[in-house]
Amino acid sequence: MNHPVDPVGAAATALDNRSWIPADHELTLAREFFVRRDALDQRLLPGMPPCPSPQGWTTQHVLWLGDVAALATDLLNAWRPWLPEGHGHMASLLTTYATMAASAAPLATRLVRDWADAWQGQGAVSPQDTSRWEDWHLPKEQREQLDALTDRLVMVGAVMVMAVNRGETTGPRR
User: How many CB atoms sit inside 10 A of residue 107's CB?
Assistant: First the structure.
């Protein structure tokens, strides 16, 4: 029986047994992704107040997931001519990251629509009203799913960081 290959596990194993030492272009792609990802703003919906918590609103995280998915996809498309045949581990990791983050797109679309329906023409919305709105539109089960998705994204990102660190300490290959 053939099981689908887990690109994150495959990359981590290849790093561990040193069968993959990221090439220059893979290191550059990963670094560019991290720099751009870290520069992404946590967007607020129109009329949404800044969150009193440094963590931000859950809605902001959902919107960020869509932004990071688009960023990863755009980078992969731009880099495709320089990626190896079959695209390699780094491209697989970034593709996995983009696909996982994009899974929140339907939720983001719904939240944008529901926010507009609830608050259009209302002016400024208070943090308390925003908190109640999120509690209603993002029930506990959905927040738990978002937490699990975020945990999986952290794992993919961690393997990418390991790859960059390994490439920097062993010297990249061409």
Answer: 21
pLDDT, residue 3, reads 53
Q: pTM of this prediction?
A: 0.90
What gap in Å lies between CA 85 and CA 82, rounded to an integer? 9
Closest by CA to 130, choosing from 41, 46, 40, is 46
Cβ contact 166:93 at 8 Å: no
Residue 170: pLDDT above 70? Answer: no
User: Strand runs (DSSP E) across the chain, as ranges?
Assistant: none
Q: Is 163 in contact with 11 (CB distance < 8 Å)? A: yes
Neighbours of 24 (CB within 10 A): 13
> How would you classify residue 87: left for phi > 0, otherwise alpha for psi between -120 and 50, otherwise beta?
left
Inform me whether the pLDDT recorded for 73 exceeds 70.
Answer: yes
> If DSSP codes are grouped into helix, strand and coil, which group holds residue 25?
helix
Residue 118: enclosing H or E segment and its boundaries? helix 105-119
Between CA 85 and CA 12 the distance in angstroms is 20
* DSSP conformational letter for 23: B
Q: Taking the CB of residue 2, how many other CB atoms lie within 10 A of it?
A: 4
